[in-house]
Amino acid sequence: xxxxxxxxxxxxxxxxxxxxxxxxxxxxxxxxxxxxxxxxxxxxxxxxxxxxxxxxxxxxxxxxxxxxxxxxxxxxxxxxxxxxxxxxxxxxxxxxxxxxxxxxxxxxxxxxxxxxxxxxxxxxxxxxxxxxxxxxxxxxxxxxxxxxxxxxxxxxxxxxxxxxxxxxxxxxxxxxxxxxxxxxxxxxxxxxxxxxxxxxxxxxxxxxxxxxxxxxxxxxxxxxxxxxxxxxxxxxxxxxxxxxxxxxxxxxxxxxxxxxxxxxxxxxxxxxxxxxxxxxxxxxxxxxxxxxxxxxxxxxxxxxxxxxxxxxxxxxxxxxxxxxxxxxxxxxxxxxxxxxxxxxxxxxxxxxxxxxxxxxxxxxxxxxxxxxxxxxxxxxxxxxxxxxxxxxxxxxxxxxxxxxxxxxxxxxxxxxxxxxxxxxxxxxxxxxxxxxxxxxxxxxxxxxxxxxxxxxxxxxxxxxxxxxxxxxxxxxxxxxxxxxxxxxxxxxxxxxxxxxxxxxxxxxxxxxxxxxxxxxxxxxxxxxxxxxxxxxxxxxxxxxxxxxxxxxxxxxxxxxxxxxxxxxxxxxxxxxxxxxxxxxxxxxxxxxxxxxxxxxxxxxxxxxxxxxxxxxxxxxxxxxxxxxxxxxxxxxxxxxxxxxxxxxxxxxxxxxxxxxxxxxxxxxxxxxxxxxxxxxxxxxxxxxxxxxxxxxxxxxxxxxxxxxxxxxxxxxxxxxxxxxxxxxxxxxxxxxxxxxxxxxxxxxxxxxxxxxxxxxxxxxxxxxxxxxxxxxxxxxxxxxxxxxxxxxxxxxxxxxxxxxxxxxxxxxxxxxxxxxxxxxxxxxxxxxxxxxxxxxxxxxxxxxxxxxxxxxxxxxx
Length: 861
Prior knowledge:
- The protein is 31% helix and 24% strand.
- β4 (144-146) and β5 form a beta hairpin.
């Protein structure tokens, strides 16, 4: 034979394809994927079977893990000791297995990610549940395969009474596929199996009455059922897991205590990560995090700073850490049929998993019954011969004594009594003690019992209803023996985060400076003072900058920002940067895509922007510097866009000065700088599109080219509301709404403030009630908060009273804002300082924006 004859030429592409398919199927079938019937991969099955062969059961002393690993390697699993020992360790870890199959002695690792001690140091034995996996294996209930060197038999599957695939779950990565099945509660799964036996046509919805959701060994919560239902119905789903936490209130601060973690989480890495988030100030409000876990249970303690809301901090932890995580279910397992004995991977629903387990149990019960029937029939056959011998004992003894050899005695018995070899041999082997009368009676009793058992076995094999009852009884017995309570609680809340959950709905004051710096400050930082006080520092600004706009809102409101050029932008209040009263804030250009030559001129804060009915029934009313007004339905501005939208068409010499929210039938009052105001019903203005220009609302003074509209108010309740006007030099008053007669839009209006040198021009107009406080802020940054009853109600043409003492001659009022009324106690405390310490510090409080932090602190006092 030549060399050419020995070389077989093949197509390399086909050879690679064929070889890779063989390799991948070997990995899938023999290593990575579990069998749906018993939930085991080959390595787990071999470990348990070997421990059973070695007699290391739960009622025997533990044996060295190295002894087990070596035996498994030598007999069944030649893949390396680390793979075998790793699988053995996992079977003994209660935080990985819902029901451990091996009892470990020694260091078997921890939830902190610590690895187990070397196998020469640890010991192990089967647990009761592990033994239940192999019950009846000696009764030919499963097929046996030859091992790798063809010297021994090993089970192809375990005859388990426990639905281990669902109960203990599974995970594995094969070639081109993976599996990830969560653990479940034994009682619930068996209840589902029993329900399936009673009704094979049961639906998944009906099964979920019994098997509600996965049950993880580490406890915690499952948030929502959407992912669970998807996993059960399709085999794939995303289950949201959350740690079990409690907030404990202490005398100094609150603490968040974590007592249970999501399945598969490394505790030590979690604690380090939370500490790092706190150090990097990515989560504010955490002063310390400590792991206080001990033998009595898990306890991670997170200290919350005094002035922070523990619930808000906890919600941020859920969002940014693995305290809330997900379990991606991918229920793939090997499914066996007669055509593919090695098994084929399939994606399985919950009902499929139960169906294949029940079919396996049915096969096991049938094969066990056949084995028991055969053994019983064999014993009955022998008993028949023994009974014949006992009834003719004298003749039997004579025949045996007369025989020269045992075989001759067997032949003589066969010929005399018509027995076969088995019966005759049993008689010859019979001990003399069995010749007594008592033993003869026992033979008859045993024979009768055997006959009853044979009848029972034959009935199981012939009556499918009885077979199902046997299966149910055995499952219920397992449930009562090994079942326990559910550990993971199910929360039926939404699986999606609501960002508002991370922020308490506290009241805040939003300030915007002339140069475009914005911040939010808790309202409680501003205390009410008496009328005529000097106020306190309300914002640190750069030179030539001053606080221009001030608004009151709550954290869950949506802010609609309107620019001078008529653009609209959106931000949630909690998205605004938080700062103290004297903080500068953050440039709004860094938060919104505003043109460099544009600026925020008006804002609305709306809670129900996502409510379609609310948006359809309310309108946005615009007013420009030149007296142009426009009304547009709020729904036009209910869909936020990152780059904003055009809100109103603005002429070159004009800009937006005021925006109000109306209900379609409110009354509007517009005021100008020269102290005039016009009142008309909004019904006189028809609703227009988002990009319309609008119509004339007020005619300005032709003789004064500097005249312009300074504001617009919406009157909802004329009986409760009054009209407040404030001048740039600190004068102000309230007037009754009735003092302003209703006219048609487009007129010049009537006098609302008597403009003099002492008052200066009008800077603000507000619709106020007695339940509100007034906040005033100067261009120098000084703020004052006034009780509304401190401001008297006067006629339209009066000058008003002093609202704030402007110590600096060049200082003027920049903006005013309405906030809810302060409490009486706070008012009394601050009123005591109105003419005292506040006056002493007035020079400090009106210094430039370059004040140091120490000076700013003095100003607050």
